[in-house]
Design brief:
By secondary structure, the chain is of the alpha/beta class. The chain has two domains: 101 residues, 3-Layer(aba) Sandwich (Rossmann fold), CATH 3.40.50; 97 residues, 3-Layer(aba) Sandwich (Rossmann fold). 32% of the residues lie in helices and 25% in strands. It contains six helices and ten strands; from the N terminus they run βαβαβαβαβαββαβββ. The strands form two sheets. The protein has an eight-stranded mixed sheet, with helices on one face. α1 packs parallel to α6. It is globular. Bound molecules: glycinamide ribonucleotide (GAR). Glycinamide ribonucleotide binds next to α1, β5 and α6. The site of glycinamide ribonucleotide has 15 residues, from α1, β5 and α6.
Length: 218
Amino acid sequence: MKRIVFLISGRGSNMAAIVRACASERWPATVAAVISHRPGAAGLAFAAGRGIATATLDHRAFADREAFDAALAQAIDAHAPDVVVLAGFMRILTPGFVQRYAGRLVNIHPSLLPVFPGLHTHRRALEAGCKLAGATVHFVTAELDHGPIIAQGVVPVLPHDTEERLAERVLAVEHRLYPLAVRWIVEDALSVAGGVVLHRDGAAQWLGSLDQSAGSPG
Ligand code: GAR
């Protein structure tokens, strides 16, 4: 059984989607812990309610990023994870931390990387007049919102979209995309060569419906 540890900052809806898929699809994996750097993060209550170990490591209690990341690594390693899943974890990680978990640290970002790394992705997509938006699951490297792309989910940008409506449509595809990608990892179904991630059976590494009448991924 592969062991999964989540890092969250708040709502934790992506974490919840993965936890549910892991149980209902009977993955060869167990969710070992959910760790937040924000006390009271909503996702912690969801995890505790499912009997999953939770921990809070308040970043404000640490002198600097290195000290926090060292303590975080200790908390993670106590659960001996095979995969560390960043699920809305809104902190910049030190290169040492990223190196420690190289190849088993994954993130989801609400844009079609490499466009729009960083914050306010939906606003930036609307301002740029993009006709497509989406989310990306990727292996984490030292560069923010960067690294080998495991899977992407795509949604149309509709006329008169607002940031909120677009975010909602992208989040719906995130909730299907991230479980799919993490499942591939726990099944050892991926290979990385020259920075390109491929599924061993050639499974399509993207999701979404571009049917504008539906207005949401289907
Ligand atoms: C998600 O939309 C995720 O893609 C984004 O934060 C949200 C977390 O929601 N992550 C990033 O922006 C990382 N750069 P959740 O807590 O409900 O999963």
